[in-house]
Predict the structure.
Amino acid sequence: MSASPLIEIRDLRIRFHGDDGRITHAVDSVDLSVANGATLGLVGESGCGKSVTSLAIMGLLPKQSAEISGAIRFDGLDLLKTPDQTLRNLRGNRLAMIFQEPMTSLNPSFTIGDQIIETILRHRGGSKRARAGDRVAAPGPHPLARAARRRISAQALRRHAPARDDRDGAGLRPAPADRR
């Protein structure tokens, strides 16, 4: 007997209703299944629905204009029928997404460390002072390259997750105590 998939999508269809009454069919009949511990890459041409599918999984599509049908299950939970508060508790804790343009997920008004710690505090509790050791080293006040912003977004996801091996080198290391 095989275990249930961690993520299972069946007949996912997403349409957007424009202000002018126009309907855009963004995703048409997507089926996929991802086992716990497996990795899946969504690849395809620009505009084929990769990001829209990911946003639907995360529950981040605009409710007023996106019409979603089918099923999206995460660990047995039907995400399309899950209350917003439950989705907020899952996002950043058990569900996460690295956006194509990570600068849109980073607020330039706050330090990168504070933004990462905010996610940790939301899902693990504690105080900023207690979590000071979780700060990350970041470049100076210079603009960050797109790849660096993606690594920072990925690090934000990893910092609050259970300890994992980081041999891929994509993550930033915690700042030494003398550099804080």
Observations:
- The radius of gyration is 18 Å.
- The helical segments are 50-58, 84-90, 112-124, 146-159.
- DSSP finds four helices and four strands in the chain.
- Residues 134-139, 162-180 have pLDDT under 50 and may be disordered.
